Amino acid sequence: MNELVLLGIVFILLTVLGMPLFAAVGLTTALALFLIDIPYTLMAQTGYTSLTPFPLLTIPLFVLAGRLMEVGGMANRLISIATSLVGAYRGSLGLVTCFACMLFAALSGSGPATTAAIGSVTIPAMKRQGYDVPFAAAIAASAGALGSLIPPSNLMIIYGLVSETSIPRLFLAGVIPGIIITGFLMITTYIIARRRGYGGDGDRFTWGPFLRAGWEGKWAIGAPVLILGGIYGGAFTPTEAASVAVFYALFVGTFVYGELTFLKIVECLRFTALMTGLLILLTPTLAFGQLSAFYDVPAAVESAITAWTDNVFLVMILIGIFYIIVGTFMESLAQIILFTAVFLPLVTHLGVDPVLFGVFTVITCEIGFLTPPLGGNLNVASRISGITIEQISIAVLPFILAYSLGLVILIFVPEVSLWLPNLFYGEARY
């Protein structure tokens, strides 16, 4: 136990000092190996095995596909469809941002990428319509987090690999919670916009503009149909679907919309390399997770919590609070890898479906995107809007409440998440 306390202090100290997370975890893991006299070759072996799973290719491919779709014109077409569908209501442009983020989330797989793609267009437009800038940035940041919940989702892929859970089941499990949270975000946007008198001066909804926008954006709408339809129709695996998405984005952006140039493609490749560089976290965090088994951390956590309560709802709420606090300073990728091994045995022992726990984990990570000081989506929205993260952090609080409400519904009504995967694949046996 003294060793665990020492490791915890070292990890927290290195993190507070500002050391990159992969280095902080790596040094803590090296210290743990030294303390229990395990050869350091464990780190090298884990580094090799962590990067060999074939489904891991899905992440850079979906990141690349999402970026190509953004700069290739698909994001603008989706915004046009959302704008024509919403019409002239109070906060209409904010509602468009939420709805467009939900649509683009089915292309990108990433929360920050969705925020950048949609927010770069809608935040300046909301500013021109007189929206308070922190409020406009908060809408884009919170709705952009849907990119990690609505399939395809990079975080769900990582969770699936770590927990050995079916990735297609995880994708399906995120659909209905994603739609519900989108509804909560739109309701929150409408209430605030109505009180402040934002928007509502555009054209009312009519079928003509909507059908024209839908026809012009048919190639953009076709992307999620192709990706998800191919996966669940049995035409290809999630990894193959990501490859198809890349070629589809290249074809549409280059030959249909004519907006992709050689320089833009190079920029997309550069962006993908930077984004997927986060996978460097895999080696130290997976090694750290393996060491937790040597120290019997999962068993100790289970004993400590079940000695206090074995109420599954209360346990899930406590884990959710812990995840949200950790998400304020820890990258979501590391959070999933480190703590899934600790908490998954506990919740499955209490009867929680691993697929449900995966969706639960991703939603808590989305809240982490919206909380400083790390707040990935806040950083993106801050750069687009030109204001500080602190200003956005206050404006985003009502939207965090919307996510929290969605999390509570998921905990108490698990069928919200499990109905679709059980419908397609039948109830899983664990």
Describe this structure in words.
Helix 7 runs antiparallel to helix 8 and helix 19 packs antiparallel against helix 20 (354-369). The chain is built from 24 helices and no strands. It is 77% helix and 0% strand. The two termini are 32 Å apart. The protein has helices spanning 2-16, 21-35, 41-50, 58-71, 74-86, 92-108, 111-128, 133-144, 154-163, 167-173, 175-196, 207-216, 218-232, 238-256, 262-276, 282-294, 297-308, 312-326, 332-349, 354-369, 376-385, 389-395, 397-412, 415-425. The protein has one domain (39-425). With 430 residues, it is mainly alpha-helical.
Give a topology summary.
Layout (H helix, E strand, L loop, with lengths): L1 H15 L4 H15 L5 H10 L7 H14 L2 H13 L5 H17 L2 H18 L4 H12 L9 H10 L3 H7 L1 H22 L10 H10 L1 H15 L5 H19 L5 H15 L5 H13 L2 H12 L3 H15 L5 H18 L4 H16 L6 H10 L3 H7 L1 H16 L2 H11 L5
Helix pairs in contact: 1-2, 2-16, 3-16, 4-7, 4-14, 4-15, 5-6, 5-12, 6-7, 6-8, 6-11, 7-8, 7-21, 8-21, 8-22, 9-19, 9-20, 10-24, 11-23, 13-14, 16-19, 17-19, 18-20, 18-23, 19-20, 20-23
